Amino acid sequence: MTDDKDVLRDVWFGRIPTCFTLYQDEITEREAEPYYLLLPRVSYLTLVTDKVKKHFQKVMRQEDISEIWFEYEGTPLKWHYPIGLLFDLLASSSALPWNITVHFKSFPEKDLLHCPSKDVIEAHFMSCVKEADALKHKSQVINEMQKKDHKQLWMGLQNDRFDQFWAINRKLMEYPAEENGFRYIPFRIYQTTTERPFIQKLFRPVAPDGQLHTLGDLLKEVCPSAVAPEDGEKKNQVMIHGIEPMLETPLQWLSEHLSYPDNFLHISIIPQPTD
Amino acid sequence: MPSSVLWAVDLFGRVFTLSTAGQSWELCRDAQLEFKRVSAATQCCWGIACDNQVYVYVCASDVPIRRREEAYENQRWNPVGGFCETLLPSDRWPWSDVSGLQHRALDGVALPSPHWEWESDWYVDENFGGEPTEKGGWTYAIDFPATYTRDKKWNSCVRRRRWIRYRRYKSRDAWAKIPAEDDPQQLPDPFNDISVGGWEIIDEPVGRLSVWAVSLQGKVWYREDVSHPNPEGSSWSLVDTPAEAVQISCGPHDLLWVTLWEGQALVREGINRNNPKGSSWSIVESPMSENGIMHVSVGVGVVWAVTKDRKVWFRRGVNSYNPCGTSWIEMVGEMMMVNVGLNDQVWGIGWEDRALYFRQGVTQSELSGKTWKAIVAGRECDRSHSGSSSSLLSAGCFFGDEVRGSGESCGPSDTDACSEAERPGPDPDIGGTAERGVEVAGSASAPAELPWTNIDLKEPKKGPSHSAPGFPETPDLSSLGLLPLGLEDPYSAGYPPLWAWVSGGGCAVEAHAVLKWSAVQSGLSPSVQTLSLSITPAQTAAWRKQIFQQLTERTKRELENFRHYEQAVEQSVWVKTGALQWWCDWKPHKWVDVRVALEQFMGHDGARDSILFIYYAVHEEKKYVHVFLNEVTALVPMLHEAKHSFALYTPERTQQRWPVRLAAATEQDMSDWLALLNLSCCESRRVHGRPSPQAIWSVTCKGDIFVSEPSPDLEAPERLLPCDQMFWRQMGGHLRLVEANSRGVVWGIGYDHTAWVYTGGYGGGCFQGLARSTSNIYTQSDVKCVYIYENQRWNPVTGYTSRGLPTDRYMWSDATGLQECTKTSTKPPSLQWTWVSDWFVDFSVSGGTDQEGWQYASDFPASYHGYKTMKDFVRRRCWASRKCKLVTSGPWLEVAPIALGDVSIIPESPGANGSGPSIALWAVSDKGDVLCRLGVSELNPAGSSWLHVGTDQPFASVSIGACYQVWAVARDGSAFYRGSVSPSQPAGDCWYHIPSPPKQRLTQVSVGHTAVFALDENGNLWYRQGVTPSYPQGSSWEHVSNNVRRVSVGPLDQVWGDGGGGWMLAPGSGTQGDPGSALVSPAAVPMVPLWWGGQTFKGSAFQVWVIANKVQGSRSLSRGTVCHRTGVQPHEPKGRGWDYGIGGGWDHLSVRANATRAPRSSSQETPSRQSGEQSLPSEPLKVAGGPQETLGPVCC
User: Fold this and answer.
1) Which residues of B touch A37 (CB under 8 A)?
2) What does the pLDDT look like over B172-203, one tens digit per residue?
C-alpha cells in the first residue's frame, strides 16, 4: 500500500464489531438475545442502530419504550461523537467485540443530548463540517457549495458511500497553491482523565519559519501533559481511528487523511495500557 | 512552459538575468564588460557594450549550433590515367562549390569568426540522395554539369564527390563580439541602440531574427542573415531614414518603430516575410507637441512610448495593416523606459526609483494592462549557474500577495558581485548585497516548470543546512519560499538595485498566468503543495509507513474474526440516472434522446459492479440496452465542437467497430459521466493507482492517453488473449506519442513537440477526486494548428477569383475540399481548445507555395505545386493555422527546453533484471537532431542532459533495442544503424547507412530485443532479415504487411526450451537477398560489440504491435486500430496474422515496456489459435473497400 488514497478508504471502511445487550433492568416479554453488528467507525451511533432498536423493541412492550440510549461500562455514550472516537476513548484496550448496553429508560439528561430524529444528527454533522471549513478556509469552500452538495455529504455518510461522500469532501480538503496547508487545523483532543470534554484551539499547519507542524508540535502546544518527556516513560497513547500515528507525522497530512467525515481530527489521549 | 529569462542592465552596466523559475537576479558571466543596452530573444541576447561595440550572447543548449561546409572534388577520365584531376581547360575547378562555378579548395575554407571551431576534419560524403554510394563517394556523369548517378557506366567521363566538414559555434553562454566589417568604408560608426525581433515573420531559416541598430550618428542599420545556425549574422546594411534616429524597437512580428532626435516616431511599413527589412517610413507625431518621444517599444500588436516628460503612452489601434495606429492614450506612472516582451507583456523602469516594474493585467483583450507592479528580486551572484538543485526550493511558493517576513540581511554595499566558487549556504557577503528574501516575478505555474532533476528523491544536495527531515529547505531559502513578490513596496527590503535597461524579449509570461501574481486564487488547488510534499522523502518517511502498517493491523484486529457480523448500514443498489443522447444502432443513424441509469452494487469492502442501462423508445415502445461495466474495454472521449460525446467499447463492439456512443448536454455533464463510468470500470476490474511498469501505453488522434495492463496471456502461444479484450483506461494529459520501458520510465511528446516525462501519478484531466493521485499531477498544455484552405479558380477575364464552377469545392474548405470551412465558422477542435493566434497563411506546405502562399494545380483535386504554369486553372492557399491551445492536467512534467519529434527508451533486456545504472534513451529533436539522454534512471526518469549525436541530415525516427542497437530513419527516408553504442559509450561512434527497401522511403523504425521492424511512407511494414550479434545491421528488408501506420516492437522474451537456436537459423532461409546489402559490408567489421556476445541471443522472440490504418469490422470501419501480430516465433519472426484490438482513432502505441513473461510453454509448435486464426499466415491487414466506409468515431 503506497497510495494516500488507500488511507481514506481504510479510514472510511473501518468497522467495530459490537455486541449490543439490553440493560438488565429493562422489562421484556421474552428474553432479549444480544445483537451483533459491525459499526462503521466514522458514523454516529444513533444513525446506524435502527436494526438494534428494532431487535430489542420486538421483545418489549410498547409502553416501556422511550428514547434509546447506549452505555458502555457505566458511561453513557454520546451519540454526537463519532463511533470510532467513542471506542478509542473508552474501549480500545478491552477485548472485542465491544459490549454496549442498550437502554430505553432513564435517559441521562445531564450526559446526553436527545436525538429524536436523523435530522438532528444531520444538523449536528453539518454544523461540524461548517465549523471545520471556517477554520480551514474561512468558510469559503463550504459557502461556495450548493445545497445539493451539502446533501450529498450527508447522504454519503448516511448510506456509507465512500465515493459519494468524497466526491464532494475532496473540495473541503484543498487549499490554495501558495499556502502550505489549511489556515487552521480543525482538531479536537479528548481525554478521559479530565472533566473538560475536549480541547480545541487555533493551530496552524505551518510554522512561521515554513516548517510543517507535526502531531507532536500540536500536542506540546495544546496538551503538553499528553506528551511523554524526552527520556520519560510513555504514559499515554495518542490515538486516531484506532491507530497511533507517530508524533513526527505532519499535521496537515493527518488533517487531510485521518479526519472524520465531519472534517475534524478527533484525537484520543488514553492512558497507556499496563499489560 | 520552460523557464525563460528577463534581461536587465543596472546603472553600473552589469547585465543580470532573472529566470522565471528562479528566485533572484544572476549576474551574467563574462562580467568584465559593461553594457548600456541589451535586447533579448528567446535563445540569445544582443547588446551594446560601453565600447560601443555590438555583442551577442547565445544561450547554451545541449544541441550545438553546427553548420556544414561543403566542397566538391571534380575529376575527368582520360585514357591514360583513368580518372584524374586533370580537367579540360573549359571545365570547372578541380575543387569547387556545388555549381562548379566557384573555386573552393578544402584548405581555403576558413571559419567566419573566432567564435567558431571545426568539429572534425573534412570527410567524403557517401550518402547520395538517401542511398549509399560505393566507398569513395564518387558520383558519375557524362559531362559537367549533368545528372549524376551512383553507378559508373561505360560513358561516365566525369565524376565528382562531396566533401563535408562541420563547424560549430563555440562562444555560447558568453558575450561574443560581432566582428568589425572588413570594408572600412562600410563600417558603421559606434552604435547607440539595438533591438532584436522579427522571429514571427518567417520560420525559415530556423530562428531567423531581425536585428536593428541605431548608430551615434543617427543612422539605422540592419544585420543581415541572423538566424539560429548563424547567430552572428553576416553584415550590416544601412537603411535610409528621413531624419536622425536615436532609438529603435523591433517587435516579434512586423512592427518596427524608431525614435527620432526631433521627438517624433518613425514607423516602418511593408515588413513581411518576403521583405523583412520593410519598404518605407511614415512619421507619427509625439502625443504632446512640447514634449517629444524619448523612447518607444513595440510588441506584436502594441506600441508603448515614453515622452521627454517621462509620461508613458499607449498607442491605440496598432496592427499589421496599420502599423502607425490611431491615437495615443496616456498611462499612469512615470517611467524611464518601457520594454514590450513576449506575449505583449510590458516591463518598465521607474523614473524616480529606477526600480523594475511589470505591467499587470495585459491580456489579448486588454493590451494596455491594469497597473504597474514592482518586481523585486534579490541578486545572487553567480552562485549556481549550472542549474543546481537550489531552484527546487522555490517550488510551491512562487507567488503570493503579502509580505510575511523577510530573510534579508541588510548589508551596506550594493556592489562587487563576487564570483567565487559555489557555496552551499547563505553567504554573508552576498547576502548583504541582495534582498535575498524578496520574491521574483517570473511567470506562470512554477512547479510544472521544474526540471525533473531537481525532484530527485535522493538526498537533496543541500549539505549541512538541512533543517528537517520532512522538508528539505535551507533556512534562508525557506524564508524565500514564503516571501511573495514585494509588490508596491520595493524599499521594504533594503537597498534596491538601480536599473538602467530591461528587455523582456526572451521572457515568456503568459497573459493569463499573470493573474497568479496579484491575488490568491479562489480556485484552491492542492497541486503545488503536494509537489513539495512529494519531493520530500515524505513518501518513504517512517510516519507514513507506520500509518499504513497500523491501519492494516487495525483492519485485521477489528474485522478478521468478525466478518460474519451483520453490517450496520445495508448497501442498497445505487442508481445514477440522467438524460443523454445515443447514436442509435439502427439506420438511419442519428442521435436519439435516451434516459440512462448506472446501477451500482457495492460491497462493504468498497468493491462494486455496475450495469449501464440505456432506455429508448421505438415507435412508442419502450426498450433498453444494457452494458456490464466489467465488460467495457475502453471509454473514449470524443469532444467535437458540437457534441460532448464519448464512445464505450466492449470486445463485441470492438469487433463490430461500432462502439456505443453517448452525448451529454454540457461538457461538464460529459466529464461527470465519463469519470463515473471510468471509476466503475476500474472498480469492477480492480484496477487503480499507478499503471504497472509493464503497462502498454497508447495515444489517440485526439491526444488522449490510454494505458492497458498486459496480461501474461497476451503472448502465451496456446491460449492467446484476444487483444480486443484488453482494458484501456485513460490517463490525464494530452500527447502525440508516448514511449515506455519496463523500469517505469515513460516519456511523451505533445503536438507542440514539447517533451514530457511521466511522474508516477494517475488521473488528471476530467479524472479528479478519487480517480487521481494526490500528488504528481501538473498542468499540461499543448498547441496545435487548425488548417483551412482558400480555393480559387482562374477565368480568362478576371484572373483568379473566388467564383468557382458550380461543381467546384467550397471556396473556403478543409484540406479535402469536401467540408466548407470559413474563417469565421471554423472553431477549435473541441471546447477544450481555445484560439491563441489569428489566421495566417502557411507557407511551409509540402509542394511549396508562391510568395503569397498559393499553390497551383490544373484542377481540383490534384497535386499542388508552388509555382504557376499555363495549365493551372485553380489555386489554393493554406491558411494554416490558426493556433489553438489546450490546457489540461495529468501526471506529466515538462522536459525543457528541447522540443522533440521522436523518442525511444531502451527496452529491458531479459537478463538485466533492471539493475542497469542508467537507462538509454534516444530522441530526435523537432529540428531533426539526434539526441541521447544522459542520467535517466527509475529515480530520475527525466534524466539530466542531452548529448548531441551528429548527423549529416535531419532525422525523423529513432529506436534503441535491448542490446543497445540504435536504428534511425532520416527525413529523406534512409535508414541508419549507429555503431558501438554501449553503456560506457552511450552515443556510439558513427552512423552506418542501411539501404531502404527498394523505392521506399522509411518513416519509422522500431527495435525490440533483437528484431528490427520499419515502416515506410506507404504504410508497408518491413522486417529486417539476418540480424545477428556479429552482424547487427542485418542483410535485407522483408515485407510483412501493408496498411500500417505505426509499429512498436516489444522486448518480450519467451523461453523456448532448446529450440536449437531457431533465431540463428532464421536469416537466409528462403528469403530473397537484398542486392544492396553488399554495400554495407565495409561497415560490418568493426560493428560487433563485444559485450553483446555474452547475451543469450538465441531463443528470444518479441512482440509486434501496430496501429493499422483501416480495419473493417462487421458494422463499420475503423481507422487507427491497435493490432497484434500473432504467431511470432523465433523461427517465424514475421509472424502469421493479425489480431485486432481497440480502434478507431488510435495513433500511437508503445508495447516496449511489456516484459511480462509468458508461462513456459511445453509444446513449442502450438500454432496460434483463436482470434489469431482470423487471418491466414502473412495475410496483409484487412483493408476496407466497401461502401460502408465511414470514419471511425474518433476520426482523425
Assistant:
1) 565-568
2) 888 888 877 655 566 667 888 999 998 888 77
Higher pLDDT, B729 or B514: B729
Provide, as residue numbers in chain A, all residues whose Cβ is less than 8 Å from the Cβ of B526: 173-175, 177
For chain A, how many structural domains are there in total?
3
Q: Give CA–CA dist B11/B349, Å, rounded.
A: 11
Distance between CA atoms of residues A104 and A62, nearest Å: 11
Determine the number of helices (DSSP H) and then strands (DSSP E) in chain B. Answer: 10, 71
> For the segment B25-81, what is each residue's pLDDT rounded down to a tens digit?
888 866 578 899 999 998 899 999 888 888 999 988 888 888 888 888 888 888 777
Count CB-CB contacts under 10 A for residue A208. 10
**One-letter amino acid of A230:** E
User: For B1012-1050, what is each residue's pLDDT tens digit?
Assistant: 899 998 888 898 888 887 888 888 898 888 888 888 888
The whole-number pLDDT of residue B847 equals 65
Read off the pLDDT of residues B1059-1092 as tens digits, 9 standing for 90 and up.
Answer: 222 222 222 223 333 333 333 333 333 333 333 4
Domain identity same for A183 and A264: yes
A39 and A62 share one domain = yes
Residue A109 C-alpha, separation from nearest chain B C-alpha, in angstroms: 26
**B770 touches A at CB < 8 Å:** yes
Residue A93 belongs to domain with CATH number:
3.10.20.620
Share of chain B above pLDDT 70, in %: 72
Q: ipTM, 2 decimals?
A: 0.92
On the question of pLDDT at B220 being above 70, the answer is: yes
The grid coordinates of residue B31 equal 562580467
Distance from CA of A36 to the nearest CA of B (A): 6
A11 inside domain? no
Residue A186 touches chain B, beta carbons under 8 Å: no
Q: Cβ–Cβ of B479/A9 closer than 8 Å?
A: no
Shared domain for A237 and A200, answered yes or no, is yes
Q: Which of A20, A51, A143, A178 to mutate to test the interface with B (most CBs of B within 10 A)?
A: A178
Domain that holds residue A256: 179-268
* A249 with B602: Cβ contact below 8 A: no
Residue of A nearest to B558 (CA): A16
* Position A1 in a domain: no
**What pLDDT, on a 0 to 100 scale, did the predictor assign at position B85?**
77
- DSSP class of residue B845 equals -
Is residue B562 less than 8 Å (CB to CB) from chain A?
A: yes
Which pLDDT does position B1080 carry in this prediction? Answer: 33
The stretches of B303-454 forming alpha helices (DSSP H) are 428-433, 446-449
- Do A24 and A92 share a domain, yes or no? yes
Contact of B535 with B395, CB cutoff 8 Å: yes
In a domain, A152, yes or no: yes
Overall average pLDDT of the B628-649 stretch: 84
Nearest residue in chain A measured CA to CA from B469: A248
Least Cα distance to B891 among B765, B744, B1067 occurs for B765
CATH number for position A227: 3.10.20.90
Check if A16 contacts B (Cβ < 8 Å): yes
Contact in structure between B905 and B749 (CB atoms under 8 Å): no
- The pLDDT of residue B543 is 87
Whether residue B418 contacts residue B380, with contact meaning beta carbons closer than 8 Å, is answered with no
